[in-house]
């Protein structure tokens, strides 16, 4: 007799890089398409990549980074008509932001977005979606933290502290009696897994045991939750050199062409309760970087989209992350 297939949800995250709709008043501005044909070409490439993602991984919930609201709404119409679309920001037309798509029939529920304080007004909000099944509630928090610039490290620290405090309150809510809570934090953090912000502000460690250790009395005093950062396993080359004959390979989630360096800025963090063999759990064998058609350029590295003399090339300098959460059988 074959073992029973346990229910699960599949998640994905992708920073699609500067995906703005065409706007005549902004044509020619940095990051915005110069003409309708440029936007149409980007849409064609994004659609082809996401159609492959849908066919191969069929995500139940998908976070997209660096997209305008109009572009996201048109993407929903083309590819995700059976998904809800949410934005965490109150003024979605004002910036490139995070958009989250989730299946309408998959027991998801949108929550109020998470906003940090004492940060610039352009700081992106963090979308929150709950998935409740079989006595468990998994809270997904989608992030795109501040990139590089003046005081950016300070702002990322404040974002991390905001996420940490929210996760602590959610996981330790004494009024929650019906479901067991868990947390998944994912997105583009614009810093590496070994950054001090994860050690000092969000307590996201490289080893699973650290996130599952017995609660210390001081944890309650400082409202501390320890997370496991699954993305430590994504640092560097994923194949030994003697079997990596293909020119298409990756050593992170983001390639900076100017510096010719790889970074692992796109990450997934989980609370310790999602580790182990008893569901619900993060199925680490299914979690990883998933290059899509058009993501890897001729040079074997991710290339950002460009439009030059009516010719399109590239797609995004980030690669997507995909994974699966396994639930107990009903």
Secondary structure layout plus pairing:
Layout lengths: L7 E12 L16 H22 L3 E7 L1 H11 L3 E4 L10 E7 L4 E7 L11 E8 L2 E9 L7 H20 L8 E9 L7 H7 L1 E2 L2 H5 L4 H5 L5 E3 L24 E3 L4 E3 L2 E6 L9 E2 L5 E2 L16 E3 L2 E3 L7 E6 L4
Helix pairs in contact: 3-4
Question: What this model shows, in words?
Answer:
The chain is α+β, with helices and mostly antiparallel strands and 330 residues long. It contains 6 helices and 18 strands. The chain has helices at 36-57, 69-79, 152-171, 196-202, 208-212, 217-221; strands spanning 8-19, 61-67, 83-86, 97-103, 108-114, 126-133, 136-144, 180-188, 204-205, 227-229, 254-256, 261-263, 266-271, 281-282, 288-289, 306-308, 311-313, 321-326. Strands 1, 2, 3, 4, 14, 15 and 18 form a 7-stranded mixed sheet that branches. A 7-stranded mixed sheet has the order 5-6-7-8-13-10-9. β1 (8-19), α1 (36-57) and β2 form a beta-alpha-beta unit. α3 packs parallel to α4 (196-202). The longest helix is centred in the N-terminal third of the chain and has 22 residues, at 36-57. It is globular. The chain starts with 7 loop residues before the first strand and ends with a strand. The model has no long low-confidence stretch (mean pLDDT 91).
